[in-house]
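Q: I'm writing up a methods section and want to include an example of the input and output format. Could you take the sequence below and give the corresponding predicted structure tokens, formatted cleanly so I can copy it straight into the document?
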Amino acid sequence: MARKNAFYAQSGGVTAVINASAAGIIETARAHKDTIGKVYAGRNGIIGALTEDLIDTGKETKATVAALKHTPGGAFGSCRFKLKDLETSKREYERLIEVFKAHNIGYFFYNGGGDSADTCLKVSQLSGKMGYPIQAIHVPKTVDNDLPITDVSPGFGSVAKYTAVCAREAGMDVASMCATSTKVFVMEVMGRHAGWIAAAAGLAQDEPTDPPHIILFPEIAFDKAKFLKKVQQTVKKVGYCVVAVSEGARYADGTFLADAGSVDAFGHKQLGGVAPVIAQMVKDELGHKYHWSVADYLQRSARHIASAVDVEQAYAVGKAAVEMAVAGKNSVMPAIVRGKGKRYSWSIGEAPLAKVANVEKKMPRSYITRDGFGITQAGRDYLAPLIGGEDYPPYKNGLPQYARPKLVAVEKKLKPFKL
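A: Here is the clean output for your methods example:
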């Protein structure tokens, strides 16, 4: 059988370990050189395919590809660009086929979250609807941990570890100063509809009086009076109060506390920062001195404190994606399956994209305490193994050293395409 080339792209918000998945794909594809020819990466995600802006990963050395495992960000560039259905975006799908034909591409690996799974599903349907054979495999990634079927989404374990570490360290800082200074500290983390990252802050708490004292989840409607009462009780009892809040915290009517009034490229509400909203509420109603922070990009780029489990899983799904493609699979996603027993273990399973695309996994109510402000033992049992182990990058002159790919462009064969 004639070899086909592969196309790989990174999509949506990047993570501390998405490049480990890229390394898994590239290294495994090189090991299957009898089946897979070249591996092209799209510069800036799917946009690279549409504009025929391809990167020849074959020009990268073994050492550089291996170094991707400990490099944050998206080595080949990512994007927020969503392909709609085949009829609405027919022009874009026809262009994809044109580019795939021109470069003999028969494998499509799309590394992203829920919206990317949807795009990958649509690409997998090109064979039947547009007469071009393509095997599309979705490679899971999202710090939000909201992909269904898979036990965890690669990228989450590392942001969870960062969040828990920050909650513990910042909490110790506030505890030191609370007698004469800051009484309330608010830490905002990512999570638009699912509170997994906010929940991870709860891992910092060993004793009931340890921070974070309050966690605000998107899954639990925000009750201002109840929240302020809890803050006041905590300050009176402990001397200070640390709050971890998900960016997607909302009122009972569904309105985000931090609704900025605009939407992004995927049609999601733009959120303007919930930490200052919460902090000002505390100041206005209770009069306490406060500080707040927004972890933002810091939480998802913190490769220096990545979870070793997360790194291993991110690489494994990239490797499995190639093995599935070589086995003739299409329209599937490698999924992480948690083993049974007290000792944490995991393996790689397979999820059909039709059951992954456009499905959002939220925090089970059983993982959240009855009062809605913390995590239960069940939640802790789920989260704790995911932040296990350290996988430090190499350091030089006191700073981590990351891969710097050459990103050699593939010669274009087609006319320019306007997005």
